[in-house]
Amino acid sequence: MLNYIIKRLLMMIPILLGISFIAFILINLAPSDPAEVALRVNEIIPTPEAIESMRQELGLDQPFIRRYFTWLYNAFQLDFGKSFIHRDRYVWDEIMRSLGPTLVLALSAFLFILVISLILGVLCAIFANSLFDYLVRIIVFLGTAMPSYWLSLLLVWFFANYLDLLPTSGYGTWQDLILPTIALSFVYIATYIRFIRNNMLENMQTYAVFYARSRGLKKRTIIIKHVLVNSLHTTITALGMTIPQLIAGSFVIEYIFSWPGLGRLCIFAIMNRDYPVIQAYILIMAILFVMCNFIVDVIHQHLDPRLRENGGIS
């Protein structure tokens, strides 16, 4: 197990370096001069002298490789420079300010996904091919096909405009959290209900379940100990990767509901060509995805002895 962890950690190094390089070259692939962009977003006339002065201030007059390694060294120290929009604010401070609301929304959505998917997935497997199962599967189909932004607009229209029950924007109360949580988690709920249902129906046909029935065990015991537990391995893997997806993929939801999180910060950075913020966001989200994938693989290998016997996940 220790050898597997060390191997995976060593494999992460070139992946993260490659991602950092891609994030850095974005500023060099931009169609406009970053120095000119920095001047324009601060409402400064981009004269040749001002552009040259800004290029020196941003270090753009240095060779490409030197700038990359300087940026990478500073990034290891959590120093991503200053925002183009707010010249007096550091990018890391802006990210930390927006991270809290995003984590609150992601955690709320994750718990909602976990509870609803587990309950409905188990019930659909127990009452397979019943009216309840068909109705849930129809909802699952709609949830998979419906874009999150369209669902968000429907929720705003129905609960906020038509019923006047919930706020359409804001941050700070539990009412503000309800609509963005539903909109963010709906497509994942549809996916995991299908995962849990299909895995449980498959495990119900195994010899272990037939043997448990022949021993006279209660149906509830068979469902929980022999079917559900063995059906959650692939679901745990998918749920682990859902965490970074909820954090990184919430920008549309945050923008629609005016949620002051990382996604909204990234959208405004893209609209205003705030390259330091965009670079930091890409790098941090990539690290989050890689780390969550590593943690999920380790947990998966620990839970499944067949993977340990085969030397780990390939």
From TrEMBL:
Keyword Heme: no
Domain ABC transmembrane type-1 residues, every copy: 99-296
Membrane-spanning ranges: 9-30, 103-127, 134-157, 177-195, 227-257, 277-299
Keywords: Cell membrane, Membrane, Transmembrane, Transmembrane helix, Transport
The keyword Transmembrane belongs to this UniProt entry's keyword annotation: yes
Cell compartment(s), UniProt: Cell membrane
UniProt cross-references to InterPro entries, sorted A to Z: BPD_transp_1_N (IPR045621), CntB (IPR050036), MetI-like (IPR000515), MetI-like_sf (IPR035906)
Protein topology in the membrane: Multi-pass membrane protein
Chief location: membrane
NCBIfam families on file: Opp1B
Homology family: Belongs to the binding-protein-dependent transport system permease family. OppBC subfamily.
Name of the protein in its database record: Nickel ABC transporter permease subunit NikB
Gene: nikB
